[in-house]
Amino acid sequence: MTSLNWGETLWDQWDRIQEHTEHGLEFTKKCQDFVRDRIKLEQDYAKNLRRLKKTYKLKNAEDDSGNFSTVKAYSVFLDQLESIARNHEILAEGLQDKVAERLKAVHKETTNNRKNLCNTASQLQQEYKEWQVSLDRHQQKYEKAAKEAETATQAFARVNEDMNATKAQVEKSRAQMNHRHDLMEKSKGDYIIAVETTNTNQHEYYHQRWPGLINQMQRCEEHRIDEIREVLQEQCSIHQSIIPHIQECIETISENCNNINPAEDSELLMEERSNQPYPPDHQFIEYGTAKPEPATFGAHNNSTRKTKRDKKKKVNKETFDNLPPEKRKKAFKEKIKEIEGKIAIQLKARTGIEEILELYSQKPELGSPGAIEESRQQLDEITRELDKLQEELYKYQCYLAALTDKPPPEKHHIGSHLQADTVSITSSMSHASHVSNSHVFDIPHRAQSVGCLEISSPYFDSYRITDLVNYNQTTQSGETEEPPLSPEFNTALMTPTAESTTELARDDHYEVPDPTLPPPLEDSPIPPGLEPNGLEQCNVLYDYVAQHDDELNIYAGEVLYVVEDNGTGWVKAQRSEFEVGLVPGNYIELIT
Asked: Please, what are the averages of pLDDT over each run of 10 residues along the chain (592 residues)?
């Protein structure tokens, strides 16, 4: 049987073809929506199965009733629900990857092909109309020329029969007639060519181009139908692939249900019998006599029956024995990550304290022996904590390795030794106590890598060790950019405490300064070649670190030049041609 195509049988039913293909696209979209909702249904079903298992899971696992065959069968039933839920998730994943995406691609491809074919059909129909219009135009032109030629012939006949007409009039009328006949013949030839061209184009249109277009639409539609067929078969294959696994789960449940034995459950209950005798017969008691002690045994005495185990199963929370393998592996990884974070924090803190001790060894005047000892104690405490964390980290790494069937990792040790110069810092402080008292104001910066630690100072109650670390980095690198200071530190920087003044007063070789000012240091000469002409000189009494861009860093003992003093408490001073800025007025003293 020879199959017919749309181009031969439906060449005159283009509107019907368009409507049919439009319905096919709507059907493909409906199949796509069906698969989408089916996927959501399978996912929700798996989720609800897990919720159901969690809701109705036996919570009295420590009770003796867990040994009964009915309870065991019920527990297996709930456990198999997890496998069933996982198989439904596999079904949803297969539908998403192999069906939903393919339907989406088929719908998109069919829509684009149909749109292109419809546009091509519109162009062909427009060309066909243009051929008809051109033919009609040539026909009308020929008819008009024929009528004009006929009119000119009739006019010539009248003039030729008129006896009063001159020869010139007759010749003119004849020429007019001949011209009209020539135009008619030309229009007639154009009309004949137009008819032949139109017939040729029309034959090609109805026998080749238009049927070919409709056949392309037929192939596009059949390809869509074939894709729908394969998609439906794929759904069946995916569903069929999970049936054996679900059947296996059901068989497991059935086997455990067959193991339910009422007699064994009864014997299990009787294993903990009391073996007590029946109570004796009651005796008649004479009125007035003492009432005997009641019996402490009998059939209703349940004192020896255990409703719960005396010793509960001890779950090792450290090894996460109560979790399934995958969740247990995840718990070990999270624990290792947590311990590594703690180790990183301790290493960061230890690095900061070692930098502080390094600074103390280089500049003993920055701290007191008590502060150094406190820093060393903190360093020892951090080292012990690091050792403890390292042991705990190695333990959980071994747990994870055993769970994943891998060899245990190599054990690493974190070093905890200080540098030699930081160890000897205490000895260097014995001959620098006076200098350290006069340089406590050299600590303006905040560290960025260490937590805030408190140490003592003879001039203010406490300041942050973090400031010492950043000061060491700033001194070595030569940078002058200053971060903002805390209000507590600024207060301590500008004003010595009463305790510090009292301590200095005990030194017979030290003159107690004004309580509103820090103690002065010895002067140091200004470097040669920097003396500006006509400016007053001043000695710097105390170190000061610039807090703003328009201020100048100054150091106790150096000589500066006063550029301007407007009486506001801030003096514009100059060290060299390129170093000019504001300094506190109470930190300098004019040289008279």
From this structure: 75 92 94 94 94 84 69 90 93 93 94 94 93 93 93 91 87 92 93 94 92 93 94 93 93 91 84 63 74 52 45 58 76 86 87 82 75 83 88 86 80 49 39 36 34 34 37 40 36 37 39 41 40 79 88 90 88 84 92 84
3-state secondary structure of 63: strand
Q: How far apart are CA 267 and CA 259, in angstroms?
A: 15
DSSP, res 164: T
Helix boundaries (H) for 404-540: 420-423, 425-428, 433-438, 465-477, 487-494, 498-505
Look up residue 164 and give its amino acid.
N
What pLDDT was estimated at residue 483? 37
Are 368 and 342 spatial neighbours (Cβ–Cβ below 8 Å)? no
Stated as kind and residue range, the H or E segment containing 76 is: helix 69-94
**Rounded to an integer, what distance in angstroms lies between the CA atom of residue 148 and that of residue 575?**
116
- Please answer whether residues 584 and 569 qualify as being in contact, where contact means their C-beta atoms are separated by less than 8 angstroms: yes
Cβ pair 500, 519 in contact under 8 A: no
CA atoms within 13 A on the CB side of 280: 8
Instruction: In whole angstroms, give the CA distance from residue 540 to residue 581.
Output: 14
Place of tokens 């180790």: 343
- In angstroms, the CA 171 to CA 161 distance is 13
If we measure between CA atoms, which residue out of 561, 520, 505 comes closest to residue 538?
561
